[in-house]
Design goal:
- With 522 residues, this protein is an alpha/beta fold.
- It has one domain: TIM Barrel (Alpha-Beta Barrel).
- It is 40% helix and 11% strand.
- The chain has 21 helices and 12 strands.
- The chain has helices at 17-20, 48-59, 95-100, 106-109, 125-144, 151-160, 162-177, 188-191, 195-204, 206-232, 250-253, 292-297, 301-313, 349-359, 374-383, 391-394, 424-430, 433-443, 450-460, 470-473, 503-515; strands spanning 27-31, 64-66, 236-241, 269-273, 283-288, 316-319, 327-332, 342-345, 364-366, 387-390, 412-415, 465-469.
- Strand 1 (27-31), helix 2 and strand 2 (64-66) form a beta-alpha-beta unit.
- Helix 7 (162-177) packs across helix 10 (206-232) and helix 13 (301-313) packs across helix 14 (349-359).
- It is globular and about 70 Å long.
- The relative contact order is 0.15.
């Protein structure tokens, strides 16, 4: 497939109000996914703990809260393998707020309360699915029944979101009806979306479909309350758009022509990355690849809709695996790992021209990590997007390495480490001595407070935006790592104990904000 590379470049005018508030500000923020918030029900939710976290962000002078994708997660808890790229994760719904809304009774949620909630026990995803699912569906059913104070608002919201919501709710209802079997194995009429079969399914599963719509309304309503509170405090939310979607998703089921699939809906090649420092066999993610020519013919409408939906939830979006938009690693579907892959061209600047035509200046961060070549750099610059720099990647490398602070430019977002890295303390404790020595000599430190040494280096850098994982603020070790690439077990489950983020932490952050002028100044 030849590349789609028009010779023009995307506009970089920063007149758009959202982008203007993002580009050029010198600021700092914290990285914490809502599932990692403390609370008594086994998973972080959009209840009191979310607003208390905003209190701490404000006290620390933070102007950004970065989250991972807010979409429904996979069975492993990964938000990067979702069944619906435009939907919200109803596992984030706060049960106590549903009691306050009159959709649940306290006695109905008490069995889900856990004595260890204040200690920040890890998310047990199978237990959450089994325990929270019936209770959430009970609340959704009551909202659908009518007569509730929120019913009219729910109907209006559902009507406004029909373009994506109808298919997402139908897909989720059918997935439940078929015991979570992939859509490729459904009866041919539903698999191939024949109108008669879809109409029949909508009638037969009408109640289940309505409950799915209600769940989406409830999570959207709770998240928008969190977002409004953040905005009132001058805090902007950074979201995350995974570059790929799951093969077993409503996105592929409803848009088969936009993906490289065989006649039965199975991927011909799948996504991943070649061998690197994370894995000697590479990473075989298994997502189907896009048919970029089909996207181009449609003016990239699907991507425009996806970014528009993301911007309904957050102020800024990070595009995960940005390098795949320059060229992607295509792995034969039958391969057991990523070593048999090959590079295929992505959409290039054409995608960003379409996005810029729709949105103006883009409030987007490019996750330009991994195997980055000149084409990736040129694409990011042409699109006018800030890239990412990770301090952990720079130490032990030559002085020319782009992840060392003396090589940064202002249009960068710097992290001591991301959700895919070990915590700073875990990384330093397990690093070879030559790398530890480089850290100490470069930063002129002894390494006894290594997490805060890297936090200070990030804040002191010329990069406009510095983002720090909460685990590093707390100085935690490898036990608090959020994700280990290519390893599903044990990832996506870390939670912050209640009251772990203290006034001492926020005061220390505020001091660095003042010292290095990360107060939102331009």
């Amino acid at each position: 497939m030849p590349p789609i590379r028009p010779t023009t470049t995307a506009p970089t005018d920063h007149s758009d109000a959202t982008a203007a508030a993002f580009v050029g500000e010198r600021c700092a923020g914290l990285l914490l996914h809502p599932t990692s918030l403390p609370g008594p029900f086994g998973i972080g939710t959009l209840g009191d703990a979310a607003f208390e976290f905003l209190d701490r962000l404000e006290a620390a002078g933070m102007r950004r809260w970065q989250v991972l994708p807010l979409v429904p997660p996979a069975a492993t808890g990964s938000p990067y393998a979702s069944s619906a790229a435009l939907a919200g994760s109803h596992w984030l719904i706060d049960l106590e707020r549903l009691v306050g809304d009159g959709l649940l009774a306290m006695v109905e949620i008490e069995p889900l309360r856990r004595a260890g909630g204040v200690r920040g026990e890890a998310v047990d995803w199978p237990e959450i699915f089994a325990g929270h699912g019936p209770v959430l569906h009970l609340a959704a059913g009551r909202l659908c029944a009518g007569g509730h104070a929120l019913h009219d608002e729910f109907v209006r919201w559902s009507t406004s979101q029909r373009a994506w919501l109808d298919d997402a709710a139908l897909f989720a209802a059918l997935h439940d009806a078929f015991d979570d079997r992939p859509w490729m194995t459904w009866p041919a009429g539903l698999r191939d979306r024949r109108r008669r079969d879809l109409d029949s399914a909508r009638r037969h599963h009408a109640a289940a479909i309505d409950r799915q719509r209600a769940l989406q309304f409830l999570v959207d309503r709770q998240w928008q309350a969190v977002r409004a509170s953040a905005t009132a405090r001058g805090i902007r939310l950074i979201g995350d758009v995974p570059i790929y979607v799951s093969g077993d998703s409503v996105d592929v089921w409803a848009n088969r022509g936009l993906f490289q699939l065989d006649p039965d809906g199975n991927a011909r090649d799948v996504a991943g990355v070649p061998p690197d420092d994370f894995s000697e066999t590479g990473q075989r993610w298994g997502n189907p690849l896009y048919d970029w020519h089909a996207h181009h013919r449609q003016g990239f409408d699907w991507w425009c809709t996806r970014i528009a939906r993301a911007l309904e939830w957050t102020d800024i979006v990070r595009i995960d695996h940005f390098r795949g938009l320059s060229a992607c690693w295509a792995i034969p579907a039958e391969a057991v790992d990523a070593r048999a892959g090959r590079w295929l061209p992505g959409p290039g600047i054409a995608l960003f021209e379409a996005l810029a035509a729709r949105f103006g200046a883009l409030p987007v961060i490019a996750e330009d990590l991994g195997i980055i070549d000149e084409d990736v750099d040129r694409l990011r610059v042409a699109a006018g997007l800030p890239g990412m720099r990770v301090l952990q990647f720079g130490f032990g490398a030559p002085p020319s390495d782009t992840h060392l602070p003396h090589n940064y430019s202002r249009d960068a977002v710097v992290y001591p480490g991301t959700h895919d890295n070990d915590t700073v303390r875990g990384w330093y404790d397990s690093a070879p001595e030559f790398r530890r020595d480089h850290v100490r000599r470069y930063l002129c430190v002894n390494g006894r407070d290594i997490a805060w040494d890297l936090i200070r280096a990030a804040f002191a850098s010329v990069a406009d935006t510095a983002i720090v994982a909460v685990q590093d603020v707390l100085g935690l070790g490898s036990e608090a790592r959020m994700n280990t690439p290519a390893l599903c077990d044990g990832s996506w489950s870390w939670r912050m104990p209640a009251d772990a983020l203290t006034a001492d932490h926020t005061g220390r952050l505020r001091e660095l904000v003042w010292l290095y002028r990360r107060d939102g100044s331009t």
